[in-house]
């Protein structure tokens, strides 16, 4: 089975767009991706649309009304923070199966300020282990404190993630926050849920990103191989049961399992990865995912951030885009936006933030809700 190719991909700047609709944002991203591919909506045979907060309102069809309806199948996808990545995966599988030659994946979200409203508790909800963790800041604060208790990870080490990612975003004109945040400022900003201060939390924002995926035969026939990026693997898993799942969704175990599947199915080792865009919804999350993605051993994440190896120019640059801490985190768009960043580097089009010689990139995202479960996606992309 031939691998799917990304032949067009783009995103709109992540901002607040109070005067625009979700379908207008998604339509703009779709047209940008089609222009990047040199194709039109008439060339697309299927649309996969990811939108979490308006999942029941047929956002994909609404986008097509903006950019051109012609009877194609549309699948609307929701999967928490992994919504956009899940829509992209469906597009890849549709092409790799031979069902379609060209598929379009769009991720889009409009979000209110402040905490994301959580749904009601499911039947059989267990209080044990989940007291005080019904909000995402509390969930990831607890995860960070557990790591600190086990391995001695410090407040300062968690804060260094925000310093690094805000520094990276200075060079990304599509990021929402573009300024330096020295370590002292990060640590002194408003405490949200210890050890995550305000500058260590991602920002609820509006955004959209889109990708055009096609078969290699189609790309060669239409002269699209020059800037194509190969999808080496599209791995996805839902909750992996552990004892902690009795009361708290376990983002670490599902990420470890999905990463293992991705490395095996791609036929690569973590040492082959040149850059990573991972789900830094909170600074604590990035450090935990260093270990979950096997970028370092268990208990070594604090030392890895101290070493500078995950900064631009380091051994394994992480979130050179600025990550969610700087770009912002529009739920449905984030998964495809991460892929966009990888494609820039694999095409040598990232400008001043280019990771030199980048050949293989990994994108990770994981989402979930207390006692509902989780969804994780890990994509490995390769210079075609």
Short description:
It contains twelve helices and eleven strands. The protein has about 375 residues and is an alpha/beta fold.
Molecular structure report:
With 384 residues, the protein is of the alpha/beta class. The chain has one domain: Peroxisomal Thiolase, Chain A, domain 1 (3-Layer(aba) Sandwich), CATH 3.40.47.10. Helices cover 35% and strands 18% of the residues. The chain is built from twelve helices and eleven strands. The protein has helices at residues 22-37, 59-67, 83-96, 136-151, 155-169, 183-188, 216-221, 251-266, 283-292, 301-307, 323-327, 331-346; strands at residues 5-11, 46-50, 74-77, 102-109, 191-193, 196-197, 207-214, 229-238, 275-277, 360-369, 373-383. The strands form two sheets. The protein has a nine-stranded mixed β-sheet, sandwiched between helices. The longest helix has 16 residues, at 22-37. The protein is globular and about 55 Å long. The two termini are 16 Å apart. The mean pLDDT is 92.
How is the topology of this model organized?
Blueprint: E1 5-11, H1 22-37, E2 46-50, H2 59-67, E3 74-77, H3 83-96, E4 102-109, H4 136-151, H5 155-169, H6 183-188, E5 191-193, E6 196-197, E7 207-214, H7 216-221, E8 229-238, H8 251-266, E9 275-277, H9 283-292, H10 301-307, H11 323-327, H12 331-346, E10 360-369, E11 373-383
Parallel strand pairs: 2-3, 2-4, 9-10
Antiparallel strand pairs: 1-7, 1-8, 4-7, 5-6, 8-11, 10-11
Helix pairs in contact: 1-2, 3-12, 4-9, 5-9, 5-10, 8-9, 9-10
């Amino acid at each position: 089975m031939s691998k799917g190719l990304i032949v067009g991909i783009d995103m709109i700047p992540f901002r607040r767009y109070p005067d625009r609709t979700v379908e207008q944002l998604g339509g703009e991203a779709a047209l940008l991706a089609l222009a990047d591919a040199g194709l039109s909506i008439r060339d697309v045979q299927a649309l996969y649309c990811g939108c979490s907060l308006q999942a029941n309102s047929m956002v994909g069809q609404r986008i097509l009304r903006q950019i051109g309806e012609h009877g194609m199948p549309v699948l609307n996808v929701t999967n928490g923070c992994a919504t956009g990545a899940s829509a992209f995966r469906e597009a890849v599988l549709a092409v790799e199966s031979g069902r379609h030659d060209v598929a379009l994946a769009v991720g889009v979200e409009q979000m209110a300020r402040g905490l994301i409203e959580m749904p009601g508790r499911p039947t059989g909800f267990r209080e044990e282990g989940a007291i005080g963790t019904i909000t995402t800041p509390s969930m990831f604060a607890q995860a960070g404190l557990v790591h600190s208790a086990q391995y001695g990870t410090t407040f300062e080490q968690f804060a260094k993630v925000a310093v690094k990612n805000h520094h990276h975003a200075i060079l990304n004109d599509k990021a929402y926050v573009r300024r330096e945040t020295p370590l002292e400022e990060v640590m002194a900003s408003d405490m949200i849920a210890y050890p995550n201060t305000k500058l260590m939390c991602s920002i609820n924002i509006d955004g959209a990103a889109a990708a055009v995926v096609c078969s290699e035969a189609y790309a060669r026939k239409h002269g699209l191989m020059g800037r194509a990026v190969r999808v080496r693997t599209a791995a996805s898993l839902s909750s992996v049961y552990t004892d902690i799942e009795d009361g708290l969704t376990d983002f670490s175990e599902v990420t470890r399992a999905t990463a293992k599947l991705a490395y095996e199915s791609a036929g690569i080792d973590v040492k082959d990865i040149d850059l990573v865009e991972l789900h830094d919804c909170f600074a604590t999350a990035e450090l935990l995912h260093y270990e979950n993605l096997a970028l370092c051993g268990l208990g070594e994440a604090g030392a890895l951030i101290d070493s500078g190896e995950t900064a631009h120019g380091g051994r394994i640059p992480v979130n050179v885009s600025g990550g969610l801490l700087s770009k912002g985190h529009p739920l449905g768009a984030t998964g495809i936006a991460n892929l966009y960043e990888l494609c820039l580097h694999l095409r040598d089009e990232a400008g001043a933030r280019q990771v030199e010689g980048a050949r293989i990139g990994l994108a990770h995202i994981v989402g979930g809700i207390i006692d509902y479960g989780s969804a994780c996606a890990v994509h490995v992309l390769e210079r075609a």
